[in-house]
Amino acid sequence: MQSREQKRASRAFQLILSGLTTSFPKEEQREKLINEAKRLPQMIHKNGLLASWAFFLAKDDDIHKNNLDYPPKLSDAYAYLLQGLWWHLKNDSPDANHWLSGRCDFFLQRLTVDQAAIDLIGLTEEAVKYAEWIKRAAEALDPGKESL
């Protein structure tokens, strides 16, 4: 049985490896993916999970046409990473979908302010931990990095 840390690491490496091999075939796209992956933990830590997610939602007009029960297919590296983060959080916490779908008003009505804050803090902590593994995976799999 895998620990939570092992699950985070495994999912992060799969996300970056898939991005480098299939989703972003061009060299400049791969470089952008690596750079965005390295910045992701800092962005979530600095701006918070919901602000980072709002930035993702604002980047693509097609999101408003799609149902967010599954992440829409996007070509942007930042959006790709946040899709991976969304998938990880959704599988790790059943309440993540309510927060990240943009339809949290009904969900918030069920919670007190304290419960909502605790839930969101927990999701943000998990997001930062997973984003750190995404950063590590990007550093390890960076095709432009010189090997010793």
Structure description:
The chain has 148 residues and is mostly helical. The protein has one domain: Peroxidase, domain 1 (Orthogonal Bundle). Helix content is 73%, strand content 0%. It is built from 7 helices and no strands. It has helices at residues 4-23, 27-47, 49-59, 77-92, 96-100, 105-110, 113-141. Helix 2 packs antiparallel against helix 3. It is globular. Residues 67-74 have low confidence and may be disordered.
Helix content: over 70%
Largest sheet: none
Number of domains: 1
Q: Based on helices, strands and strand pairing, what is the structural class?
A: mainly alpha
Provide the succession of SSEs. HHHHHHH
User: How widely separated are the two ends?
Assistant: 34 Å
Total strands: the figure is 0
Instruction: Please state the overall shape, judged from the principal axes of the Cα atoms.
Output: globular
CATH class: Mainly Alpha
pLDDT average, as an integer?
Answer: 77
Question: Uncertain regions: pLDDT < 50 for 5+ in a row?
Answer: 67-74
CA gyration radius, whole angstroms: 16 Å
CATH topology: Peroxidase, domain 1
**CATH architectural type:** Orthogonal Bundle
Count of DSSP-assigned helices: 7
Fourth-level CATH superfamily: AF1862-like domain
Beta content comes to under 5%
